[in-house]
Structure formats: structure tokens, C-alpha cells
DNA sequence: CTGAAAGCGCTTACAG
DNA sequence: CTGAAAGCGCTTACAG
């Protein structure tokens, strides 16, 4: 590959002049240099430029699982903004593992200008380490305990959980179960809290055997739904706290030939491309996905502009939205559980 | 950030010695150096190492759409192998655009050690340019006309298309339609060819108005299915050539309240995570996904080993597999179309 | 085993 | 406007 020296020699100037020309400065021998560049098919070495400038022009993106449609959409959103800049994305998957995340982050620090991260747990310490290294960091989807000093694009998970709970209550359910995500994760914890809040506010209790915690993966949704259905008194409604667990739960219900929503109502968190096409079409709490990724990337790129570099952390909290489809309905035989009474809001379909 | 000079100064040795120690060579002042490294939290600059070695240790991955579950799975497969190496992945989305692909590739050439690409069209010239630049290139999912000199991990698309056609024929269908993918793409062309081959071999003709070509996106599947259903004599069965278009077709059929498979059978290409949960569960031609990505990455990494660097191109062609679910069935009122006769293989459900 | 020196391919004050 | 020189942070023959 040709270097700037080769081009300079050919054009009869010094490397410095070629460099200046390439960066848009006025030079006398512009045509000669351009010709040399063309003939030799010269492209500056990004590595040499990086060493010189201290900038890599790459953004590290660390997500738990790229095959989760939510994260795929988020990454697409990020890509849609970098595509108009001269930044590129370096992608890493952590499989929800903190160790893996530590390893990834440690080596990214020296290779990227900034990082967008969906941390594996709220307790992660590595992000502090990243900040100390002077690498701008933005959280997406998930937060850190005490992470207020970092930029973040999140969703109002508590409200989302509440929406799910209130929806089931409004249909008249009182025997309600939750399949929550990892509790050391912002969305896992908050969605459950919001959900329980809604029930509590309505005087509906959620017994421990209905209050299950999974790990955001399909398999755990499957297993927990199975265990729920094998209870002596199974719930009449289930809230599942992410797309993958909802799919797992749906599979379990199908395997058991459960009638949805006849025997049991199911509400999920995060819509799916196939949501309306499923058996039955899924009622879900939806939220922006591609937009979340785009916003996170914009937040990060701002940090590279001197005027914003030292701004206070920006925390963007987006709203969730209930999408009612056919997987939820009033319970078939409304029971008057002791103390629960008529908790519904009177809305019927 | 500490540099190797800082560490050397602190340990009382020369930078060269620190460098040797770091690379595992025996040195006298090992402990002193290790201590300095720890205290200063020193990590070598990847950029400086790259400039020196000429290797970036990053792999460029270029796909048309990361939110297509097939490509998400492929990327995950790649990640599962790089994770055990010291290579990382730089990801780019092309949105099926050749121009975008050209741009991405052009700048990747100077930044990565190798590239895995699912080319936007079979006519792409850029890959030749990549090869001329001395950057190893592996195709995944899609091939290039005259691309035999490149490593590739593909699938037997022709056979897959044939399987789809034979399945519909075996059910007794004779009024059959195809929604194909871009015809300047390997999978788009081959799947259609295989499909048509199967019909032709059985003496079944596919009229032009049933032989539709889309662009692998959901919207085109939707529109084309719509147009198929509005025909005076709509088909009794549709083959849709990828996951997204199948979803689109399914949506169209739902919107028209079409009974599947009663009025119309639908068979897709590429399974979905939600495949069994859809209304109705989808019959599809399936193929390995994660494995395809992993294999492509292994092929590429081999090129970095001297012993294999100059081997002939390795072309891995994987097999497809029919998964029969509930979206296909015999046509409701088998017509004896002139010349078609009983083309079924006699199998009935 | 170790250090001084050169070099990887750029960019940018510093003089002119 | 332009060139020589120094420097970005490493690594590696070359002597010793």
C-alpha cells in the first residue's frame, strides 16, 4: 500500500504538503498531488492517524444479546446515526455475563472513543473504571445503581410495569402472576416493582408462588410458566417482563394446550415484529427501540464536541405504551377472592 | 494514560525491556516491571501496536440488515468464535444498498484485518477491490457471480427452493405462486430457480402473475401477497423466499382474513423463533444460522495462519431442511387444471 | 539479557 | 505556501 511518502515523492512535494492538501488546506501543487493520489490509489492509514490524534473514531457497543430483537433494533438505531458521521461501531455481546462484560470493556477502553453499554447488572463497577479512563460512556436500556452521573437513555420501566398490572386489574383479574427479569438489573427490578405497586394499590396480593423471577431468556420464561400452570390454583393472568420470556411463556402455554386468554391471560413487555401474528396476538407494554439506540448514540457523539463535553449527565427517560391485543381478557369465572372484591375499573370488552 | 516509557522509567529499565517482558520474554527485572505496570494501571496502546505490526485485530462484518433475525443469528455465531480470540468485530449495516456497501468496504479496508460480507448484489465489484487490497474476504449467505475464488459459507438455496416447491406439489397444489427475493442476489435467484424447477419437473406451470419478485423486506412481502390475493384466480399456495417477506405475506393474509391453510397455503424460507407460535404455525425451509456465522468466522481466521493463508478458496455449502407445520395443507377444492392433472405424490395428511 | 536507535505512517508547530 | 524535524506509543533487529 502506498504511503504519504510515496505520494509526496511522486508529486514532487513533501509529505507535509500532501497531508495539508488532504486536509483541505490550500497548496500550490494541488493537481499534481491529486493525480498522484489517484494513480497510486492512496488512502491514509487510519491507524497512523489514530496514533497521532489520539482518536479512534470508533464507538464500542456492548449489549447482552444481539439476537434479542430489542437489542438488534437498538443497534440499528445507533447505526443509523453513525452512518452519517465518520464513526464506526465495534460490537460485543456479553450473554448477560458480568465477567464477559468486564473483559470486553477493559480492552475496549484503549480502542474506542466512547462506549454505549447495557450493563449486565446494576452493581457493575467496571463503568466507573471506564469513566476514570476518560472514555465517555452512555447507558442504554439499563442503568447502574448510583449511575446518575452517566448519560443514559432509559424507559420508565416502573410505569410500564404498573401499566401491565393495571391492565390486568381492569379486566377483573385478581389471581395474577409475574415472571420478572433478573432483579439486579434496572428493567428487571423496576418492571416488577411497578407491577406489584399496581396490584398493591388495588388491594390485590401477589403470593410468593406467583411472584417468579427469571433471567430475561426464553428458556426461563418457558420453565416459569410451566411451574405456574402446575400450581394447585394457577393464576388467571401472567405478566412476563421481556420479549424473550414472553415467547417462552407462550410456548409453555401452547405445550399445555392452555386456552389464551380463556384460561389465562398473558401480557408481555416489549413488542415483537410478530406480535400481531401470534396465537393469540399479544397484548404488550411497548416502548421505542430504534429511537432509543439513535438517542443514545447522539448523546455520546455530543460528548465529543467541546461545547458539550463537560455538560451534566443527560438522562432521557422515554415512555412506555400499552398495546392491547387478544392475549388478555377478563377471567372466565371471576372469583371473589377474599379481600380483593371488585378491583376492576369497570372497563369491559 | 501511562505509556511504556512511564512504566520503564518507574521500573528503572528501558522501554524495550518492558516491551519484551509484556510479550512474555524472560527479563531480569520482571517483578519491578510487573509492579510498575500494576501501579500505573498500564495497558499498551492498541493503536501503536497496530501501526507497528500492520494488524488491527479487528474483523469487519457487513450485513444488509442486523434486525433481520437471520443476520442477528449469523453475527452472534461470529461473535461466539471471536470471543475466544483477540479479534473483535466491527459491524456495518448496508440496508441492501450497494452504494452504502461500497462506502463501508472502502473505509474498512484500511481498518480491519479481514472482512465477512453478505453482498448486496451478485454483481458487486467492490469485493475484487478488497481482494486486490490484500484483505481476506469471506462471503456469508450470499455469493458473487464469479466469486469462486473467495471463501464462502452458503446454503443450497436451489435445493431449498425445490424442497418448498415439492412440498406444495405433494399436497396437491397446482395454482402456486412465489414471492421471490431480489433476483440480483444469490439466494433470491437460486431459491426461485429451485422452486420453478420443481414445478416444471412436475408439469406445473407458474404464470407470470404468480411469479412475483420482492426485495427481502417485510413490506414487499405484504404488498405482493396483497396483489396475489386480488387476482381473479388467486393461487392456493404461496412460497415466500425469506423470513421478513413471509411475515409481510402473513400480515397481508391476516388483514384480508384469509384462512390459512384452508384458502391458501403459505411456506416460507428461514425459520423464525416465533415460527411455531404464529397463526398458523409456519411451514418453512430452515437452515443453520448461528453455525453459518461461526463457520464463516473460522474460515476467515484461518486465512491469518501462514499455513492456510494461500490455500484455495473453501466453499462450504450447507443443507436446508423442510419443517412442516400448519400453514400448508392440501388445497380445499382440488381443481383439475388443464394439463396439470394429479401431480401430487399421493401423500395426504 | 539489555539498551539505543530506527521505524511503523501520519500530523503539526516551527522556521522560512 | 512549504519543508525539515519532532512526536504519537509501540516493537525489533543490532550491538553489546
TrEMBL record, chains A, B:
Keywords: DNA-binding, Repressor, Transcription, Transcription regulation
Pfam families hit by this protein: LacI, Peripla_BP_3
The keyword Lipid metabolism belongs to this UniProt entry's keyword annotation: no
Comp. bias intervals (Low complexity): 327-340
Span of the signal peptide: none
Keyword Transcription: yes
Region (Disordered): 327-349
Segments forming domain HTH lacI-type: 2-53
InterPro entries: HTH_LacI (IPR000843), LacI/GalR-like_sensor (IPR046335), Lambda_DNA-bd_dom_sf (IPR010982), Peripla_BP_I (IPR028082)
PROSITE patterns associated with the record: HTH_LACI_1 (PS00356), HTH_LACI_2 (PS50932)
Domain of life of the organism encoding this protein: Bacteria
SMART domains: HTH_LACI
Protein name in UniProt: LacI family transcriptional regulator
Amino acid at each position: 500500500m502506498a504511503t504519504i511518502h510515496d505520494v509526496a515523492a511522486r508529486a514532487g512535494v513533501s509529505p507535509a504538503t500532501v497531508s495539508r492538501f488532504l486536509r483541505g488546506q490550500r497548496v500550490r501543487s494541488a493537481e499534481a498531488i491529486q493525480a498522484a493520489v489517484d494513480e497510486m490509489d492512496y488512502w491514509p492509514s487510519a491507524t497512523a492517524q489514530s496514533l497521532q490524534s489520539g482518536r479512534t473514531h470508533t464507538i464500542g457497543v456492548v449489549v447482552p444479546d444481539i439476537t434479542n430483537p430489542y437489542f438488534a433494533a437498538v443497534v440499528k438505531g445507533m447505526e443509523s446515526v453513525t452512518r452519517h458521521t465518520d464513526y464506526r461501531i465495534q460490537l460485543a455481546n456479553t450473554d448477560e455475563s458480568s465477567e464477559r462484560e468486564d473483559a470486553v470493556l477493559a480492552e475496549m477502553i484503549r480502542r474506542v472513543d466512547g462506549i454505549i453499554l447495557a450493563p449486565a447488572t446494576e452493581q457493575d463497577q467496571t463503568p466507573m473504571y471506564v469513566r476514570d479512563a476518560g472514555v465517555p460512556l452512555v447507558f442504554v436500556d439499563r442503568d447502574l445503581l448510583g449511575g446518575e452521573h452517566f448519560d443514559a437513555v432509559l424507559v420508565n420501566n416502573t410505569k410500564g410495569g404498573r401499566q401491565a398490572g393495571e391492565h390486568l386489574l381492569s379486566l377483573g383479574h385478581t389471581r395474577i402472576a409475574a415472571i420478572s427479569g433478573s432483579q439486579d438489573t434496572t428493567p428487571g427490578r423496576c418492571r416488577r416493582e411497578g407491577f406489584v405497586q399496581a396490584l398493591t394499590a388495588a388491594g390485590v396480593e401477589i403470593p410468593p408462588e406467583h411472584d417468579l423471577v427469571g433471567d430475561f431468556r426464553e428458556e426461563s420464561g418457558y420453565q416459569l410458566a410451566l411451574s405456574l400452570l402446575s400450581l394447585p390454583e394457577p393464576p388467571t393472568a401472567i405478566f412476563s417482563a421481556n420479549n424473550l420470556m414472553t415467547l417462552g411463556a407462550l410456548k409453555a402455554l401452547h405445550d399445555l394446550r392452555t386456552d389464551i386468554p380463556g384460561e389465562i391471560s398473558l401480557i408481555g413487555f416489549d413488542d415483537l415484529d410478530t406480535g400481531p401474528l401470534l396465537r393469540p396476538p399479544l397484548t404488550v407494554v411497548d416502548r421505542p427501540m430504534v429511537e432509543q439506540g439513535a438517542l443514545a448514540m447522539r448523546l455520546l457523539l455530543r460528548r465529543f464536541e467541546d461545547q458539550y463535553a463537560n455538560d451534566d449527565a443527560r438522562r432521557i427517560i422515554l415512555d412506555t405504551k400499552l398495546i392491547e391485543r387478544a392475549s388478555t381478557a377478563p377471567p372466565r369465572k371471576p372469583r371473589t377472592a377474599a379481600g380483593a372484591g371488585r378491583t376492576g375499573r369497570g372497563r369491559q370488552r
